[in-house]
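Hi U.,

Before I forget, here's the chain from the pilot set. I'm dumping it here mostly so it's searchable later in email.
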Amino acid sequence: MTTPTSMTEPHIDTCPAGGDGDPSVHGYISDKATYRNRLRRLEGQIRGIDRMIDEDRYCIDIFTQISAATRALENVALGLLDDHLKHCVLDAALAGGPVSEQKLGEASEAIARLVRS
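Structure:
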């Protein structure tokens, strides 16, 4: 599947040479259940924050929960980034060529977005 990242270059939505040779396998696949469990817990945490607001709870307690949810989401993002670097980017770098440059550029942009957030 390709989705454009800009008007001039298509985005290739595959890892160039997955660990088992399957180009459609993403780096997080071995931890997919773990990531999904963490996201479900986070979803529950967000519902809890909504409930706290609905119940007119003390602002500082709500801020504390928002901070915890933010850290949890950042940890998911960092884990996915680590998996992406160790799998997709490393495989692309070893393969070389335009896909290598694309994956390195994507990784740099993703890191920049995480740092800004």
